Amino acid sequence: MTYPDSRNTAYIVDAVRTPVGKRGGALAGVHSADLAAHTIAALMDRTAVDPGAVDDVILGCCDTIGSQAGDVARTAWLVAGLPDHVPGVTIDRQCGSSQQAVHFAAQGVMSGTQELVVAGGVQNMSAIPISAAMLVGQQYGFSTPFAESPGWQKRYGDQEVSQFRSAEMIAEKWDISREEMEEYALASHERARTAIAEGRFAKELVPYVLPDGTAFTTDQCPRETSLEKMAGLEPLAPGGRITAAVASQICDASSAVLIASEAALAAHGLTPRARIHHLSVRGDDPVWMLTGPINATRHALAKTGMSIDDIDLFECNEAFASVVLAWMKETGAPHDKVNVNGGGIALGHPIGATGTRLMTTLLNELERTGGRYGLQTMCEGGGQANVTIIERL
């Protein structure tokens, strides 16, 4: 395919995801390559684009060992039965991996070096536990976690570095009570159950047919819960405020987005659903770790000349309730525009797949409500945060 000169705008043609399976649930036994292949194949079918015209496949995935090793992006494309000549690359920006995949895909298009790119992510957390890659080397006696690096300890000291400690530190610094977090978590579950009941996810979901022939069609993680049930849970740290009820759920899923240039839209007869208005990524204190979305959001708004009021909908990943509550306090984002269909507390956080899962949901909700701009951000390991602003077309 020969393309004329592009205007260097990156467009979202379509976006799909599997239902999210809870830990040990419907997708627990699915090989990660097959899980990712499912959404890639669905994306190709829905767009009816010639798969041979795709320039690259970029998937986010963490803990790339076992079924997620060996460049799962490339493997998934081949498992989907798609052309051999299309390459694939797997990337790890921790929780933001597939959001970063979209950024790389959009940057390829905006640079004029690529025209059609599949971006997405996959994670089977039931099969490969979180942080498995950091711990596996210890079993063989040849590696230690990053925070035990002499260079790291010289800079940051010998102290615990974990998402759980960070979530507690954030709750304390921003004076967020356990009760406030539990109220937020309950709202997440209620919003997710409402979204499912009203069919708001129907357009974005691609059911997965299980080995027994049944179709897995609905997110498994939202719970019927109450403030009373949450209050009865023990904190994760003695005397702490964080409990399992206010944390994202371990789960399994895949998601994928097709990014295209203007020239590719014309050449393949594609109608875009949105365009990438802004993309950026920033770092913050890696010990605090989960505060990244605050400064990253401020940076994105400053770069675009936009304000919080210009954004119609927000997706801020619910790694922990304290993260989103602190972010809302600092940025002024109103709760009635944030995670309106629930977030990771209710819908789960399949690490490598979450970025494009959030973008898929954000796109569909903008279309449902008639909003124009959506902003997506998430906290990431190492104190990082991506921000993407999309404009519905």
Automatic annotation (TrEMBL):
According to its UniProt record, which residues of this chain constitute the active site? 95, 349, 379
Question: Which family does the UniProt entry place this protein in?
Answer: Belongs to the thiolase-like superfamily. Thiolase family.
Gene Ontology molecular function: any one: acetyl-CoA C-acetyltransferase activity
Q: Which E.C. number(s) belong to this protein?
A: 2.3.1.9
Q: Which UniProt keywords apply?
A: Acyltransferase, Transferase
Keyword Lipid biosynthesis appears in the UniProt entry:
no
Reading the lineage from the top rank, the first entry is Bacteria
Q: Name one Pfam family in it.
A: Thiolase_N
Instruction: Tell me the ranges covered by the Thiolase C-terminal domain, including all copies.
Output: 271-392
Q: What is this protein called?
A: Acetyl-CoA C-acetyltransferase
